[in-house]
């Protein structure tokens, strides 16, 4: 038996309980390494959980390639949500195409238009959502729970891989031959929009390549906030 099997079984239980107690449930697939683990597990064991991804309009080509690969490889459809074109046009007219470099406020405004608003549309009508967030990923994620009520979005939130290590994530991907973003092989551990993501060097924090021109404490885009109420571990 694989050394990962106990953790795989735990994730299966979390997914099954979420689908049983909070249907309809949807998985927010960022197409990162962790989310590809969940993509594989949901397709194998809990295909009644829906799946979506956000196309911000500024993603790397490698992410689009993986979107297409997921579509061909897995049976659970990957729904794609886009930002409102008029909001993007207004932002660019006021701030320029790369105005997000000018201040944290402008960067978060860009993230809100390209990510947060489409996320809310994706979550509309759902009772729970699933993410691939882990404690190791960032200081801002150290207080997360496996299961908690997401006050900001008004539904339950599950983080089944919360206590997985980066090594365990990659062990799963390799062992089960799961497709992944090829930028990971070029030292991009965390991948977002192309102009806001860079490769990292050995010893850097795994989120240091995201919004690298900002302080560490600001490195969230608004999709995941800490206004959550723990309910129970499952």
Labels describing this entry:
7 strands; 6 helices; disordered C terminus; 12% strand; Rossmann fold; 234 residues; alpha/beta; Rossmann-like_a/b/a_fold; seven-stranded mixed β-sheet
- Uncertain stretches: 226-234
Would you give the CATH topology? Answer: Rossmann fold
CATH architecture verdict:
3-Layer(aba) Sandwich
- Number of DSSP helices? 6
* SS content category: alpha/beta
How many angstroms separate the termini? 23 Å
Q: Number of domains in the coordinates?
A: 1
Strand order of the largest sheet: 3-2-1-4-6-5-7
What is the CATH top level name?
A: Alpha Beta
- Average pLDDT figure: 91
Q: Give the topology string: H per helix, E per strand.
A: HEHEHEHHEEEHE
Shape: globular
CATH superfamily: HUPs
Report the β-strand fraction as a percent range: 5-15%
Rg on CA atoms, Å: 17 Å
Short description, anyone?
The protein is an alpha/beta fold and 234 residues long.
């Amino acid at each position: 038996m694989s050394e990962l099997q106990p953790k795989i079984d735990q994730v299966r239980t979390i997914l099954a309980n979420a689908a049983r107690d909070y249907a309809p449930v949807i998985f927010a697939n960022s197409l990162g390494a962790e989310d590809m683990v969940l993509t594989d597990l949901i397709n194998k064991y809990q295909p009644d959980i829906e799946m979506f991804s956000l196309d911000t309009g500024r993603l790397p080509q490698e992410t689009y390639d993986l979107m297409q690969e997921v579509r061909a490889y897995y049976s659970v459809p990957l729904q794609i949500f886009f930002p409102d074109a008029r909001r993007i046009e207004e932002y660019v007219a006021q701030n320029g195409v790369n105005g997000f470099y000018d201040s944290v406020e402008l960067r978060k405004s860009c993230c809100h238009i390209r990510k947060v608003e489409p996320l809310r549309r994706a979550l509309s009508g759902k009772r729970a959502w699933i993410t691939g967030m882990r404690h190791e990923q960032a200081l801002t994620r150290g207080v997360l729970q496996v299961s908690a009520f997401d006050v900001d979005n008004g539904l339950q939130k599950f983080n089944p891989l919360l206590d997985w290590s980066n090594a365990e994530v990659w062990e799963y991907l390799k062992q089960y031959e799961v497709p992944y973003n090829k930028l990971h092989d070029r030292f991009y551990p965390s991948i977002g929009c192309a102009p806001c993501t860079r490769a990292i060097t050995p010893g850097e924090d795994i989120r240091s390549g995201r919004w690298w021109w900002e302080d560490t404490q600001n490195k969230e885009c608004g999709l995941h906030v800490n206004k959550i109420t723990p309910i129970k571990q499952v």
